[in-house]
């Protein structure tokens, strides 16, 4: 009766390593995508003038540069942390808000 249970545990233990490898690959991909997004948002926030932020009715340029810069620095310094870490999530949400909301609002000001 004990032998089938031991065999089941041995088979299950072999499958776990494949699942963990897949999970590690997915988390690495998420971290790399978040790093690219945060870098793009930070560099793009530096390219616009303070007048663009003001005219679009958004936070000031120093505020966005600080938020995105701190988020990028946290991503680089805490690279071993999970992408589900609270700091990573907050910085990723800030970068997404910048790319989806703030950047298009400022870009619409320069179109003819």
Written description of the protein model:
The chain has one domain. It has 112 residues and is mostly helical. It is elongated. It is built from four helices and no strands. It starts with a helix and ends with a helix.
Produce a short descriptive summary:
With 112 residues, this protein is mostly helical. 85% of the residues lie in helices and 0% in strands.
Elements, N to C (H/E): HHHH
Number of domains: 1
What percent of residues adopt helix (DSSP H or I)?
over 70%
Largest sheet: none
Radius of gyration: 21 Å
**Uncertain stretches:** none
Secondary-structure-derived class = mainly alpha
Per DSSP, what share of the residues sits in E-state strands of 2 or more residues? under 5%
What is the terminal separation in angstroms? 79 Å
Counting DSSP H or I runs of 4 or more residues, the number of helices is: 4
Mean pLDDT: 86
> How many strand elements?
0
From the spread of the alpha carbons, the general shape counts as elongated
């Amino acid at each position: 009766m004990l032998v089938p249970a031991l065999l089941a545990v041995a088979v299950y233990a072999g499958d776990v390593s494949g699942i963990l490898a897949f999970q590690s690959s997915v988390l690495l991909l998420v971290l790399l995508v978040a790093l690219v997004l945060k870098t793009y948002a930070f560099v793009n926030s530096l390219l616009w003038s303070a007048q663009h932020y003001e005219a679009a009715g958004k936070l000031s340029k120093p505020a966005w540069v600080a938020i995105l810069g701190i988020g990028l620095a946290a991503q680089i310094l805490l690279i071993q942390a999970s992408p589900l870490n609270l700091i990573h999530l907050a910085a990723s949400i800030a970068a997404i808000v910048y790319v989806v909301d703030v950047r298009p609002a400022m870009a619409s000001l320069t179109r003819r």
